Amino acid sequence: MTKIASFNINGIKARLPRLLEWLEETRPDIACLQEIKSQDEGFPADAFEKAGYGAIWHGQKSFNGVAILARGAQPVETKRGLDGEPEDEQSRYLEADVTIGDAEQSLRVACIYLPNGNPQPGPKFDYKLRWMERLRARARQIWAEEVPAILAGDYNVIPRDNDVWSPPAMASDALMQPESRGAYQRLLNDGWTDPIGNWHPDGQIWTYWDYQRGAWQRDHGFRIDHLLLSPQAADRLKAVGVDKDHRGREKASDHAPTWVELRG
Fold first, then answer.
1. Which residues are part of a known binding site?
2. Up-side HSE of residue 153: CA atoms within 13 Å toward CB?
3. Of 200, 252, 263, nearest to 226 (Cα)?
4. Which of 37, 42, 170, 221 is deepest in the core (most CB within 10 A)?
5. Cα first-last separation, the chain
6. Residue 154, SS3?
7. Catalytic residue numbers?
């Protein structure tokens, strides 16, 4: 069994004790981290090595940043950043092949921190939509390789009305605009599977609770962290889940770890 998780850690230095605690308690084989908010030279690779994880990372000072951890293995980087806008210096995409244990085949894992897009309309929303089209182009290239693959991360997209505690409360947000949802749906139309959405068709599964307005205490959350599976990975799907209790711990991220388990 291989467990792959996505976790927007919201500052890897500030949350390192919580992150190491989660790794120890849940022992994912692969962990995709977003919003590490660390320059490359400041990434705490030694701490993960002591915890038994190899790591690669794509950092940026104070903002963004993504990383891939593998238990007892070293991720082999296959791509850093997305094609299409050479001037884009934001660290939001990292991709690797990961072989866990004595598995016969590696997994292709993409770690994604998709732009938020607020305020909309405006240049930040336009950038979000362009970025999603660039992601789709890369996803099609991965698809053509016919490998087991996972596109894991914080997509900053609420796919359906039942993926948010109150659709009217978020109606004007970039996360719920028809253009954002349409771009996400095009990935699904290309053949990628949203396993948590499929396993929970009635929704009400949150992965994010804002720090403001008592959102956690009132369970006012929404689902924006997704792990999309290629057919070769979806055929091996055994379980999905959200480690909700980790959101309620002291000095926690505003996201909860979200995961899938694959056979083999």
1. 8, 35, 154, 156, 254-255
2. 26
3. 200
4. 221
5. 5
6. strand
7. 113, 154, 255
Instruction: Report DSSP state, residue 117.
Output: -
Which domains does the chain carry?
2-262 (3.60.10.10)
Task: Return the SS3 of 208.
Answer: strand
∠ at Cα 112 (120, 170), nearest 5°? 35
> Nearest to residue 131, comparing CAs of 139, 141, 142, 119?
139
Instruction: For 175-222, write each residue's pLDDT tens digit.
Output: 999 999 999 999 999 999 999 999 999 999 999 999 998 999 999 999
Annotated binding site for Mg(2+): 8, 35, 154, 156, 254-255
Write out pLDDT tens, residues 115-148: 999 999 999 999 999 999 999 999 999 999 999 9
Instruction: Work out the pLDDT band at 264, boundaries 50, 70, 90.
Output: confident
Cβ distance 240 to 234 under 8 Å? no
